[in-house]
Amino acid sequence: MTDRIASDRLEKLEALRAAAIDPYPARVPQPTAIAACLEGIDARQGETVVVGGRLGQVRDFGKLRFAHLRDRTGEIQIGFRRDDLAGFWPQRKLVETADHVVVRGELGKTQKGEDTVWAHEVTLAGKCLRHPPEKWHGMKDTEARYRQRYADLFANPEVRDTFVLRSRIVQELRRYFHLLGYLEVETPILQPIFGGATARPFTTHHNTLDMPLFLRIAPELYLKRLIVGGMERVFEVGRVFRNEGISMRHNPEFTMLESYEAYADYRTIMERVEGLFAHLCTTVVGGSKVVFREVEYDLQPPFQKRAYCELLAEKNDGLDFFDGEAVLRRARELELKTDGMPLEKVANDIFEATVEDSLGGPVFVYDYPTAICPLAKQRPDDPRLAERFELFIAGMELGNAFSELNDPQDQEARFRKQLEHVDEESPSELDEDYVAALEYGMPPAGGLGIGIDRLCMLLTGSSTIRDVVLFPLLRQVKDVPIQADQDAAGDQSGEG
Fold it and tell me: Of 208, 256, 398, 425, which one's alpha carbon is 20 to 30 angstroms from that of 241?
């Protein structure tokens, strides 16, 4: 361990122990949030408060020291005067930048008028053994930030603000569905048959039952079982897992909202989605406009609506999804894979390659071909098309919704067709229990899936999914490097 920590800080740790000061005490005075201490501070001069947090850069003026103290709610300057801290003063240099401290003192101001807590008692709450990043000015190395999120959070306040906002987004999303009478539920993450989406799963094994299991790629089929059971309006916010690539939009483990509403269809769900965005704009964003990747988007409903096949034709010289020869020609022009692939998959690959990036939105792309929608109800007037939509904003798919297929015979036939094209993304067996659930009768229903991470990217203006996932998946390294020894020279001078 000693080869991974700062030697000067290790020396101070031992000096603290030699002075009978516990660097990691079990109990300390309970602090008040700094934001609460700052409320009405001009009228509270001289009031005794207790604040706690991590120390910023310490500035030394001999008989006087200053440092800012930061907690989850804000920061305030702490003034350390020798005459007020007779017991602490001899060990003052053993408490330094990035240490956790609790300070009891009086609210006041400096000669320059800065709000300050003048310390009367200082308790070390947790010694920091590594030098903090870049003199407390933040971590700049992107890879280090993701690997050491714990340091990123305290070194870059804007990062912490992003995750606070993410928490509010999820909280308000839940509140929106609760207000609509939805019941929040939990369904299995370990599943004997994966389904509900097309993706390669992570596999595992249960020893006692001696059976293979999959980390879910979607909660869909279990949630629709609850609609069969009469729960009528349900939603789940949970983790899903897809054993696929990593990119600015993809993390193998991510958070999904899925909701299902009996006696609704995909048009109803469009209204629900527009209502959700209106709610989030009011409660979280503070307006209808967001800036994402330097482009402004207006999220005020109603959203634009465009038919899938019309967009495909528009971007590909009139290409007809159902014209197999034309689809293959266009795919070869685009150098897309075609060998051994179903035509409908090739056609959808063309859509993804030529259409999606151009969808600024917000736009509902609706009426997808039935051949690529194994869980969606067909349009009564054109069975080639399914009652499905996807929501796109900034060329990024944020949501997917269906009028849910509730005909058990049709569903079983589509499952069997899926099994004809077995690959790593296709279930290896028919989900007979789900078909059995449908045979008990499921009412018409509208279902919705929204990627929470992408939604948070949009609403926080974060350009990559790693900026809204606290601990994104990264390639393993043997050791986390020590941050540059920026503050090893000791305390800095400068006026508080």
Answer: 208
Decide: 219 and 227 in contact? Cβ < 8 Å.
Answer: no
As a whole number of angstroms, the distance between CA 430 and CA 432 comes to 6
Collapsing DSSP to helix, strand or coil, 363 comes out as strand
Question: How high does pLDDT run on average in the chain?
Answer: 92
Rounded Cα distance between 405 and 386, Å, is: 10
The single-letter DSSP state of residue 371 is G
Burial class (CB in 10 A: 0-12, 13-18, 19+), 268: middle
Chain CA centroid to CA 84, Å: 46
CB 493 within 8 A of CB 62: no
- How is 439-473 classified by DSSP, letter by letter? HT----EEEEEEEHHHHHHHHHT-SSGGGTSSS--
Q: Per-residue pLDDT tens for 188-208? A: 999 999 888 888 999 999 999
* Cβ atoms < 10 Å from Cβ of 480: 12
DSSP 219: S
Q: What is the pLDDT of residues 379-411, one digit of tens each?
A: 999 999 999 999 999 999 999 999 999 999 999
Q: How many Cβ atoms sit within 10 Å of the Cβ of residue 108?
A: 16
Q: How do 64-71 and 100-109 pair as beta strands? A: unpaired
Let me know: does 400 contact 256? Beta carbons within 8 Å. Answer: no
Go through the domains of the chain in sequence order and give each one's CATH number. Answer: 2-137 (2.40.50.140), 155-303+361-467 (3.30.930.10)
Contacts of 257 (CB under 8 A, 6+ apart): 173, 235, 236, 237, 448, 449, 450, 452
Which residue reads 């279990």 in tokens? 222
Q: What is the pTM of this model?
A: 0.89
SS3 123: strand
* Number of C-beta neighbours around residue 234 at 10 A: 25
Structure-block tokens of residue 80: 């350390």
- Amino acid identity at 132: P
Alpha-helix runs per DSSP H in 317-407 = 324-333, 343-354
Q: Which two tokens stand for residue 20?
A: 């009978």
Q: For residue 102, how many C-alpha atoms fall within 13 Å in the half-sphere facing its CB?
A: 15
Query: DSSP character for 210?
Result: T
Closest of 272, 253, 99 to residue 182, by C-alpha: 272
Whether the CB-CB separation of 255 and 236 falls below 8 Å is answered with no
Instruction: Give me the amino acid identity at 476.
Output: Q
pLDDT digits (tens, 9 = 90+) for 165-180: 999 999 999 999 999 9
**What single DSSP character describes residue 134?**
G
Question: Do the Cβ atoms of 255 and 239 come closer than 8 Å?
Answer: yes
Classify 472 in phi/psi space as left (phi over 0), alpha (psi -120 to 50) or beta.
beta
Contact 125, 101 (CB under 8 A): yes
Q: How far is CA 10 from CA 6, 127, 130, 161, 204, in A?
A: 6, 10, 9, 32, 43
